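Recall that a protein's primary structure is simply its ordered list of amino acids. Everything else, from secondary elements to tertiary packing, is in principle encoded there. The following example makes that idea concrete.
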Amino acid sequence: FFRMSKIKKEKVHEFGRGRSLYLKLLSYFFSLLVPIIVIGLLTYIKSANVIKSDFSDKIRFNVEAAAETIDIYIRTAQETSINFFYDDVVQAYLMPREVQTPQVRTELWKVPKIIQRSENIVSGFTDSIFVFLDDQDIYVSGGLNQFDTFFNTIYRYNNYDVDFWRSKLNSSEYIELLPMSEITDKSLNVKKYVIPIVMHNQINKNKT
């Protein structure tokens, strides 16, 4: 009995030492693990902030670059429109149909040539240029079209009908940047989205 009791005490003692060693090892493990977790979290938070900052900077740069590009496009369109309005051919022959003389009508073929020249200047960011100063005729680089036919069939805007464009003859704005609209271009048999820029001026006291 004494022998067995002594053996049991020794085993209990050994178990206690083993348990104590296990707890020490476990505490060492957690003492190492906690700093690793803390360092990992700090690194993650710092990296996330850096990525977020870089992303915000890129977005801001892209927006600023896009805004600057749009400004350049609008300035170029303005300069081109001024050159068109004050061209000698345009000043001499572009007028409402009701005041055109036979001599003027024989020279109207020159106006689309000036439009074509203007389109070549802004071709990098424009789809087409058209000009009108009454609700009878539309001048394009390819020639002359009837007002209603042009906006209803040839170059139809989903968001802007023929009456909308007719109302522009009474506009007092020098330049208007309209919201984007889908258009149907019958000449090319395609649909696409455009942002119309409307320029107004006077030619021989006639609104254009």
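The two ends are 122 Å apart (CA to CA). Helices lie at 2-85, 88-93, 102-107, 110-121, 147-154, 162-167.
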